[in-house]
Design a protein that fits this description.
By secondary structure, the chain is an alpha/beta fold. The chain has a single domain (2-137), classed as 3-Layer(aba) Sandwich (Cytidine Deaminase, domain 2), CATH 3.40.140.10. It is 23% helix and 41% strand. The protein has three helices and seven strands; from the N terminus they run βαββαβαβββ. A hairpin with a 2-residue loop joins β6 (118-125) and β7. The longest helix has 13 residues, at 10-22. The two termini are 26 Å apart.
């Protein structure tokens, strides 16, 4: 079931898809900030998971640094993004199990789509996901 609509700037969307293509065998990850409710900036963060091909774990030091920079710039924590190199753009069991930020959007990029990248957005809370409608704007 698709719920709320999320506006994403085309430039930011292209940046996320590009990052995923640069590391097609690993889950890339990071944070996105917003200003006035509009996604505005991407903060790539190193995936320090033991098996970065299978799941992601944000590097704690880089995550704290990104969140500090957001506060300094007057930005809000808007979303967490990560890629799935060989799986659809749907929350995995691990994504649902390890979620610790139910208030933010989760963007998942799939590289498992025969040359066409797919990105979908979700709200994840209590080990359950609700899909959000993503719309690109300029």
């Amino acid at each position: 079931m698709i719920s709320d609509e999320i506006q994403l700037p085309r430039k930011l969307t292209n940046q996320l898809l590009h990052f995923a293509q640069l590391s097609p065998d690993l889950e890339i990850c990071g944070l996105i900030s917003s200003k006035n409710g509009i996604a505005s900036r991407c903060y790539p963060i190193r995936n320090c998971a033991e098996l970065p091909q299978k799941y992601f774990l944000l590097d704690a030091k880089e995550q704290i640094s990104a969140m500090t920079e957001m506060r300094t710039l007057g930005e809000d924590f808007f979303a967490i993004y990560h890629s799935h190199p060989t799986a659809p753009a749907l929350p995995s069991d691990t994504d649902l199990e390890l979620d610790t930020y139910p208030e933010v959007i989760h963007l998942i990029i799939s590289l498992n789509t025969k040359g066409i990248l797919e990105m979908r957005g979700f709200k994840i809370s209590k080990k359950s996901a609700v899909e959000l409608l993503l719309k690109m704007n300029d």
